[in-house]
Design goal:
251 residues, alpha/beta, TIM Barrel, 8-stranded parallel β-sheet, 41% helix, binds zinc ion, TatD DNase family protein, TatD-like, hydrolase activity, acting on ester bonds, Metal_Hydrolase
Length: 251
């Protein structure tokens, strides 16, 4: 496969657990990281084997019902079926901050030695999220829609984190993130990003190509390479759907 043939790679989107085969077919050969927001949603998808979707095991920090249903034993049990954890994290305006922090810390500790990627929300809480990552020494982290300042970015990189970026982020923020740590995302169905469907990464690839002074094709190739590095370092490559692992290995 040449870099011109690489499929779109969307490292953070929301897809309904009851998505149909036809809806997935409509995504073509794109690869999408499909977040869940609660253990209940995750248990609905745990037996799905979709070649192009990488399902996440998530407890969204701003969803009160998901926090209320947090159960570490159930999480550990589900974790065996997932190559990706997400979406998890902290949200400044999400309510019950103390419980958000304790769940986030507990999840980071559980996943620390697991071969998984971890997609992390940090709205209004970038400094705290990075501090928790440092303390837990969790690998495989991808900070989604990360709006931290230069200090936060530097500390995130010290903690070996990657970043998934979208077209609603400012140009300044996108330029703050090093090219060898960036993946694209749509956060579909977030309206602000204006992606018409999951895997609609054209706009963010264009913005990155302008920031990096390169072509959108090279941006896509760079993000696939970044995913390969991250998947090998975290060990998640063993658990990824086979067609995705093959794409990574034959880059
Ligand atoms: Zn999200």
């Amino acid at each position: 496969m040449t870099s011109a043939d690489l499929p779109a790679l969307d490292a953070h989107a929301h897809i309904a657990p009851d998505v149909t085969r036809d809806q997935i077919t409509a995504l073509g050969d794109a690869v999408v990281f499909a977040m869940t927001r609660s253990l209940h949603e995750a248990s609905q998808v745990k037996n799905r084997r979709d070649h192009s979707l990488i399902w996440g095991l998530g407890i969204h920090p701003a969803v009160a019902t998901a926090r209320a249903a947090w159960d570490p034993e159930r999480f550990k049990d589900l974790l065996r079926s997932f190559a990706l954890v997400g979406e998890i994290g902290l949200d400044r305006r999400g309510g019950d901050w103390a419980r958000q922090c304790s769940i986030f810390q507990e999840i980071l500790t559980i996943v620390r030695s697991e071969p998984v990627l971890v997609s992390i929300h940090s709205s209004g809480a970038t400094t705290e999220v990075v501090q928790y990552l440092h303390d837990a020494k969790t690998g495989g982290a991808i900070l989604h829609w990360f709006n931290g300042d230069d200090t936060d970015v530097k500390r995130a990189i010290d903690a070996d984190a990657y970043f998934s970026v979208n077209a609603a982020m400012s140009e300044d923020q996108i330029r703050r993130l090093p090219r060898d740590r960036v993946l694209c995302e749509t956060d579909f169905p977030a309206r602000k990003v204006r992606s018409r469907r999951p895997a609609d990464t054209g706009r963010i690839e264009l913005l990155l190509s302008q920031a990096w002074g390169t072509s959108p094709q090279e941006v896509r190739a760079a993000t696939w390479w970044n995913l390969r590095t991250l998947s090998e370092r975290s060990g998640a490559i063993e658990r990824l759907p086979e067609p995705v692992a093959d794409t990574l290995l034959y880059l």
